[in-house]
Design brief:
The protein is an alpha/beta fold and 327 residues long. The protein contains twelve helices and eleven strands. Helix content is 41%, strand content 20%. A six-stranded mixed sheet has the order 2-1-3-10-4-11, sandwiched between helices. A five-stranded mixed sheet has the order 7-6-8-5-9, sandwiched between helices.
Amino acid sequence: MQRRTLLGAAAGTACALPRIAAGAAGAPRAAYPEKPIRIVVPFPPGGATDAWCRLVTGPMAEMLGQPFVVESRSGAASMIGTEAVARAAPDGYTLLFTISSLVQSPVVFRRAPYDAERDFAPIGQLGTTSLVLACNRDVPGRDLAGFVAAAKGRNYSFGSYSPASTSHVFGQVFSDVAGLGMTHVGYRGEAPELLDLIGGRLHCALVSMTSAKAYLLDGTLRPLACLGRQRLPSLPDVPTFIELGYPQDFAWSGFVGMLAPAGTPPPIVARLAEAFRATTERAEVRRALAEQDFIAQWLPPEKMAAEIRRARQSWAELVERTGIKAE
């Protein structure tokens, strides 16, 4: 706004100034974005979340005219990076790209330095994803029943890419339901977890298709069952836990999306959401997601907010029922 011009205008326009100022107070500068946008992934680089973030921020940068700087800030079951964004200035230049751990970690740890609903302004959901229970190829058992039979009475271990994550909680639920008494081994990201799983230092883990697909298809890892209600396209012969008679809790699939700090001006959120939505419709993006057995399901800000509320409640009920918690 050109202040000198306005102050020098005719007196008849003076009464319009409060209205103009009020309208501009919550609006973004017309040039937004006028500098690079930092987007935090609360997991180590090289994992599925990092890959999804880079897949979508490339096209978004083209549309918005500014690059995205992807920053990995892992630790405390994703809560360190998530808190950093919650406390950042709500100006559209610090964003969060995350998964269901946004609501999961606070529930499992019984504490959190942020509120998943109050401290963020959702930009949109990219889609949902399921995990596959996989074991090292040298572990006995050709299917889930065989694995369970081999594991009983032995000190088997299961890994997770982060404490309090889907892979941790459902690994524990599987161990409990099957009566295996497996030992949990937590990692900081999927990359080190996969190294140990492939190397035989870990018996099994719930892994993402984004990170583990090649190993699952070439026989390095053996897929046993998948979360969700539908089989994965790349693994048509691998049943879901539900098909095998496990509880309905195993129908869980997690969300993947982008958020800004609460208080970010609505016009900025809207511009980011539109670029995000347009990106999800690009053929090359949808093709890349499909290759990872990712279910692309765009949700605008208000619907993603509702999904966060639903997931938070569902996760709280599951954790309460199973008694799982992390320290």
